[in-house]
């Protein structure tokens, strides 16, 4: 691929490759791509843009020719330069494993057969076999970090160890094997710690995560990000460390706003990692609802999605039917005549109090949520049932002392709420 970044020199390189292929009887597919234009349109550096354009071409040609392998010309010097750059910038095992000798592409295997030999060895081979080659003039400048390392750092390293290519090749191979083992372990553990998952949210068991060694905790978090299809380019070790800190040290609830509109929430025994938008965050914090229930019967509410039924007596068949229809069913009973209609189903309000069964005084609903370890993000939407005299039921948590049933023979009203 001619990147069109070096003008006539690049055109001559392309013509030279095409001529060599004709002489050797090798099929050649060459293409010109305006990388500078692509970089500008996609707001990328020229290096990143060039790589994207190259691999797009590779995938296209591989698909058209049903190719199963793509051989690239990276060699041992490239590996040394890559390792030095990553050491300087900071990297984990995946980064320090360097450029892989082989890896899976879109529909083909990428192989790099020259990784254990250096540029000098390749040049010597070409001279001995009288094979001509062209030098990219941009390689001679110190404009890029890689070039600077090549010209100033690599020669010093070779003075320390002339066999550096082979040593680096063996070292990266060992690191890669250990990295793959840890990744496999993390994949097994992530299946255990995930309690539920959707397109935009994953819920994990906090107690199980804490039992994992720190390196596996870190890998589990990174896997979760990939499951949510989150680009990690704007994430750094600092962000992962913040999550690890709240897993291990923070008490109670904690919320972190992370890059790429990701929110990490720790609540009691669970950790949530989710993709949110600023609009959805605002909606969650300001949502209020209030529904009037004027008589016995069945009610359907969309905000939040709740189904509610009120009827006289006890109906075991109805209870079983609701338990099969909904993932969660709350149920309670009141003495007939003890409730002052119309009832109101709403979310919490500041200062809400209830007199629970067995308690002489009143208790704040806020304290009930805390005592029952209700996640903070669920408290705003949690349904509360009131009549004209006050709160009679906080479903799933507490019901009022008023209208309590002492015998099944009494005339009672059954109330059930079903949610998904």
Could you explain how this protein is built, in words?
- The protein is an alpha+beta fold.
- It folds into four domains: 1-67, no CATH class; 71-128 and 147-181, HUPs (Rossmann fold, 3-Layer(aba) Sandwich), CATH 3.40.50; 198-282, Uridine Diphospho-n-acetylenolpyruvylglucosamine Reductase, domain 3 (2-Layer Sandwich); 287-419, Phenylalanyl-tRNA Synthetase, Chain B, domain 3.
- The protein has a five-stranded antiparallel beta sheet with strand order 4-5-8-7-6. A five-stranded antiparallel beta sheet has the order 9-13-16-17-18, with no helix packed on it. A four-stranded antiparallel beta sheet has the order 10-11-19-12, covered by helices on one side.
- It is 43% helix and 20% strand.
- Helix 2 (35-42) crosses helix 3, helix 4 crosses helix 7 (145-160) and helix 4 packs across helix 8 (164-193).
- It is built from 15 helices and 19 strands.
- It is elongated and about 105 Å long.
- A hairpin with a 2-residue loop joins strand 7 (262-267) and strand 8 (270-275).
């Amino acid at each position: 691929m001619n990147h069109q970044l070096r003008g006539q020199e690049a055109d001559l390189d392309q013509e030279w490759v095409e001529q060599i292929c004709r002489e050797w009887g090798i099929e050649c597919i060459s293409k010109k791509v305006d990388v500078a234009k692509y970089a500008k349109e996609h707001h990328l550096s020229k290096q990143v843009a060039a790589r994207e354009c190259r691999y797009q071409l590779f995938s296209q040609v591989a698909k058209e020719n049903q190719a199963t392998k793509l051989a690239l010309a990276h060699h041992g010097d490239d590996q040394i330069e890559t390792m030095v750059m990553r050491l300087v910038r900071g990297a984990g095992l995946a980064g320090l494993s360097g450029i892989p000798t082989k890896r899976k592409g879109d529909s083909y295997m990428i192989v790099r057969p020259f990784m254990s030999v250096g540029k000098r060895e390749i040049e010597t081979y070409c001279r001995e076999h009288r094979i001509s080659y062209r030098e990219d003039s941009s390689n001679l400048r110190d404009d890029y970090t890689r070039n600077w390392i090549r010209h100033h750092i690599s020669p010093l390293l070779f003075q320390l160890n002339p066999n550096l290519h082979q040593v680096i090749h063996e070292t990266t191979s060992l690191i890669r094997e250990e990295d793959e083992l840890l990744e496999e372990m993390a994949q097994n553990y992530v299946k255990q710690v995930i309690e539920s998952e959707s397109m935009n949210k994953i819920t994990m068991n906090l107690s199980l995560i804490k039992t994992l060694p720190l390196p596996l905790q870190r890998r589990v978090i990174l896997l979760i990000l990939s499951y949510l299809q989150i680009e990690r380019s704007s994430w750094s070790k600092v962000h992962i460390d913040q999550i690890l800190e709240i897993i291990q040290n923070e008490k109670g609830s904690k919320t972190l706003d992370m890059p790429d509109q990701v929110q990490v929430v720790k609540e009691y025994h669970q950790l949530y990692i989710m993709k949110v938008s600023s609009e959805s965050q605002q909606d969650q914090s300001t949502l209020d609802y209030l529904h009037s229930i004027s008589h016995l019967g069945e009610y359907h509410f969309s905000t939040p999605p709740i189904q509610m039924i009120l009827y006289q007596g006890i109906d075991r068949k109805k209870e079983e039917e609701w338990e099969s229809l909904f993932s969660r069913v709350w149920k309670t009973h009141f003495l007939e005549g003890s409730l002052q209609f119309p009832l109101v189903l709403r979310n919490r309000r500041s200062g809400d109090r209830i007199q629970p069964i067995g308690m002489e005084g009143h208790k704040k609903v806020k304290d009930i949520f805390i005592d029952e370890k209700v996640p903070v993000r669920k408290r705003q939407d949690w349904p509360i049932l009131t009549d004209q005299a006050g709160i009679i039921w906080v479903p799933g948590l507490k019901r009022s002392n008023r209208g309590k049933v002492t015998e099944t023979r009494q005339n009672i009203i059954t109330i059930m709420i079903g949610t998904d």
